[in-house]
Amino acid sequence: MIHSLFLINNAGDLFLEKHWKSVISRSICDYFFEAREKAVEPDNVPPVIRTPHHYLINIYREKIFFVSVIQTEVPPLFVIEFLHRVAETFQDYFGECSETTIKDNVVIVYELLEEMLDNGFPLATESNILKELIRPPTILRSMVNTITGSSNVGETLPTGQLSNIPWRRAGVKYTNNEAYFDVVEEIDAILDKSGTTVFAEIQGVIDACVKLSGMPDLTLSFMNPRLLDDVSFHPCVRYKRWESERVISFIPPDGNFQLMSYHISAQNLVAIPIYVKQNISFFETGSSGRLDITVGPKQTMGKTVECLVVTVHMPKVVLSANLSATQGTYNYDPVTKILLWDIGKLNPQKLPNLKGSLSLQSGAPKPEENPSLNIDLKIQQFAISGLKVNRLDMYGEKYKPFKGVKYVTKAGKFQVRT
Amino acid sequence: MQKLLQLPVNAVNIVKSVQGVVQGQEEALSPVLTPDSSPQNWYSAVQPEELRHLRSGGMGGGGEGSEDRPGLEEGLTSVQSQPLRHDDLKEMLDSNKDSLKLEAMKRIVAMIARGKNTSDLFPAVVKNVACKNIEVKKLVYVYLVRYAEEQQDLALLSISTFQRGLKDPNQLIRASALRVLSSIRVTIIVPIMMLAIKEAASDMSPYVRKTAAHAIPKLHSLDPEQKDQLIEVIEKLLADKTTLVAGSVVMAFEEVCPDRIDLIHKNYRKLCNLLIDVEEWGQVVIINMLTRYARTQFLNPNINESLLEDSSEKAFYASDDEEDEDKKAEAAALVKRKPYVMDPDHRLLLRNTKPLLQSRNAAVVMAVAQLYFHLAPKAEVGIIAKALVRLMRSHSEVQYVVLQNVATMTIKRRGMFEPYLKSFYIRSTDPTQIKILKLEVLTNLANETNISTILREFQTYIKSMDKDFVAASIQAIGRCATNIGEVRDTCLNGLVQLLSNRDELVVAESVVVIKKLLQMQPEQHSDIIKHMAKLIDNIQVPMARASILWLIGEYCEHVPKIAPDVLRKMAKTFTNEEDIVKLQIINLAAKLYLTNSKQTKLLTQYVLNLAKYDQNYDIRDRARFIRQLIVPTDKSGALSKYAKKLFLALKPAPVLESPFKDRDHFQLGSLSHLLNAKAGGYQELPEWPESAPDPSVRNVEIPDWSKCTSRKDRKEKKLDKPFYSDSEGDSGPTESADSESDSGSGSESASASDESGSGSESEESGEETESEKEEEDEEKEKKRKKRLDKTKAKKPAEESAERCAIHTSYQINTIAPSGSIKMYELLHRITGEGLAVEYCFSRQPFSPDPNMVAVQIQFTNNTNSETKNLHIEEPRLQSGMRIREFAEIEVLAAGESVTVVMGIDFCDSTQAANFQLCTHTRKFFVSIQPPVGELMTPVFLTENDFKKEQGKLMGMNEISEKLTLGEKCVNEHVIVERVTATANLSRVPCGSDKECRFAGKTVSSGCLVLVTVTTKEGGRAQLTVNCEKMVIGTMLVKDIMQALSQ
Fold first, then answer.
1. Which parts of the sequence belong to the AP-3 complex subunit beta C-terminal domain (chain B) (predicted)?
2. For residue B562, what pLDDT band results from cuts at 50, 70 and 90?
């Protein structure tokens, strides 16, 4: 299936290669470089590139291209999903997935890749199995290892590998047993010029951090499960229970994981927490323009909107911006043409406003289109859909765990057209 | 065999003799060495000291520097130190300290990762293959796998280590030895690999068996001649019942022998049932394979619908109403003639894959989606839309692939995605390739009802800054306009407005699209043509200019005054035009000459003369051809008479089609589909068969009952049984299966703990018999197994969990055709002060004691407080009766319910079992009285066995009654359902349709119970029960009579 993997940074340097079958010369990447050049933006590189004898399937993540070489038919999503899993594993192991961390931990990276694929077919991709096979690096451990000469590699087969619940290892022990659940909802919306909603929906995820001893069997139930229209689960969740009783019953993995993601049914009207009044115009003469943006609260249910950021991708002809903000700071990057206005907390009494003039390249025709605004925001302790966790029960273990649920609403792909 | 084992020794000898020379000849031996680094190795081996100076001066900037892009400086230093470091590394590898070795190996692996050649270290590294330190060992493996192919002779040195590893008691070591051994691509060890794979395929540890499955494709790619032997191994591993192996072996199957569909038959149902517990990657492979399998084995579920659809579509256009009705009647007749009944196995596949749509893994979701698209009845395909739309939230690469597939699906099944139209709206931040795909989907989804919203969306897209995307949007508008007649004029007006756009690309694209639209109804739009004629002065994009010229030429009669003037202008600029424009100028000239020769004769001649001396031969040819055709001369042939017909023929309007049309002949989700070209190794998706092949090939053979002792096998036998009743083809059992599996999953946790002990034991004994067939090394094997058993025993929890999961998935098949299991009340909620207890006979074998009946008890706490310490006390039983209590339930929270399983040996009597049910505060006296039908378990007998046994149980042991069947007992199926609902018996296959036979045995004493129902004319029937225990027989007759006469 997957023949080889090449890691290439944004500048086009190939800094790691791994082969699971016969070695394929790194010159194969020339086809990739060609496509990369043609695409201009890294986002626009086609995920599947055809070469005379191979196929290159690549993903772009954390400024690194993961380029895999395929020789025969294989579902492209299979490879893409796997490459993302690789990136996530690196993140899990080293805290971040970047060129420097990969270069610093190249041996562990190699050991991981060796375990994750056998002859190109995924072998162990569950992080808890991998962590038993190859222990993640910590400062303490690397010190101890250099002194004692002991290794990072486990000697026995991880128990998870053989069981039907590969995501959990046996013999987990904690002195403080706790389980935290974060309900994070994101509003995806497109508002048009006049502020009416073209499209809005709510997507949510429940992230969990479970530190419980033994083999706990948890059941999570909601006050209003009917809200959930479409769900996808971590493999630990029992589908049947969800289908019949609308409860989430699972034996959790140890540590951090995403329990489920969901979509709120389309019938429910989406409350849009803020409104944006904007006026961006470019003058026919004088190569300048005006910009005036005001943000105000709309349906916030009495909560405060925080971390409010407005991002505008300006047309190429805009050279600089001379603006004044009543709240927060703004910054215009003339290279990327991005105007970023960091507002912070939204004060309903005194609405934040950004006003001023834009200067354009002289002689260039005025831009056809006004740029759209991308909004970022956060509301703590509040799930915009109204979803509420009812209770969390634990079976199978005797201790009493500490349980906590947190709600956050964020803006997802929230866009205002102008 | 012996010869093979000696091989490494020989190899060592060879190597020893060669070793001295090897390093010198390396370059010649290994063709893979990169040219710029190999000379170094060669030098360093011969005379490193002298050459070091030489190289640092001479080659620093050149050879190495280009390989090491990051910086010249680093390149220089690495060049200077590299030979040194390699000597270093050799020294470190030869040292006695593990830490030094480890450090050296780490540096070597880091070099491999950067693509540096370290093959000269091979001899030094390979010596450490037997190193005690596991990390060193692993890194050596990494090195070995990377370079073994290049240094085949030296690689043989390591083989004996792996052979030893294959016999190690630790399953991890055995597995990794096999993994590395099979990864060394050295043809000479093929026989050793083959042997190792065969042995590992019957290993105790499922993990080793999984590794064996992985090794199969490796060996196959190394030596395709081994195929036949490998297929045998695949066949064996396909029969494996663990989820761990399933995915890997199907992968091997797909790579080695994807066309051997016959190997799947026997394992089909098992694979379907295991699917949900297989790891995600395996799921993808299995689902894709089963899609192909199902296409060869089942009938098209939409066969009747497609017939209906075709005829109704025709009817739609037919003017005659009567004909319409005729056709409908005909279609209805067709349906009647060929009633489609879905094969239960087909249904099983659809049912078992459906929950996987909820997987977090996009590849799994896509695999299920394509399975439904290719296999499901039309009405059911819709469910995949929601899941696919969900994937649109994922990474952009995932979006890209999903959108490609959605685009193909929307062409065939537009309705499916219509509710999700807005999810395909485009954001300005999407990458261009995603935008264009979304546009494609939106265009495919457009119809009369939603076109106005879609067009409004498109209008905002046209203003985008991304010009490629704007061009695609304009084309999309054009396609909507051609497909939906109502909006054609609106679109056209919109596009004409775009002609005054400032961006030339936008104008050009609009011109091209308008040209296509005008072709549909040119008469009404001569003003647009005029408008476009004016544009020719400004537009520079060749394609657009060519389009305008073509339009004017084609419809020159609508614009008689303008056309010659345009030609005049173009004649002036002819020499500076692009080729496509030149061709169109010639075209325009020819058409004008034919219609308006008075005004344009000279102009045409001038243009043709210019073209005659053009650089491009196409243009020269065209000019010559046209001149002959249109200018009448003496010599000109018969064709010139028809010149007008040739040039001004009515041309059909172009059809704007989606590039995704007909892509669905590739299996969706595949690489080939994405590229719209067959990728290597792609397996065609077969067409549905005309008539279904024999479904009985999937029936699983049942081993002889009497020989089989272990419980697990017995259980399976019972599980396999219903396939026979299944094949009678009715959706009844299918539905009941769902409800039953739910109740089964309730007991999951309880049965897991109960089963753990004996379950694992029985598996091993099962395997023991299997491996005993291989008589070689029997003693060794046993020893190893004993050790293994110890390791195995450590993890009973997981083992049982696994078994339990398999168990529950199997339950889907243990369908007693009765509907749901009847619940009885043990303790009413009021008498129990809020604690309600119900029980039922789950009909599952009670694993701790086979002579007990499993009673599933469900406690529900209706109070507001916790109930604690639920347990059983003081059973008061008839002599001989025994109770196996369930484990005490510590806490039952308010509002919760819990299910446990207990076992009761009723001694084959219907006497009640009395006991006390205790909570932390109260005690309740309760009793369980079993219906006689629950005191037995099914037994599988063949028809002949049945007759033989019946013969032994005549006279006193036979009870026979006549009865009249109830109104609803109309067919055999109902009878079977009624009888199996009353008593836990299994159906015995039977040739005659007038007779239904059932067999079972009592749980406690194991006496056979045989039941025969013979139906006669007029709803009368005769019931015969043969049983050694007359009391049981009499009571059973009574119960069954009651059930049948209702």
1. 784-911
2. confident
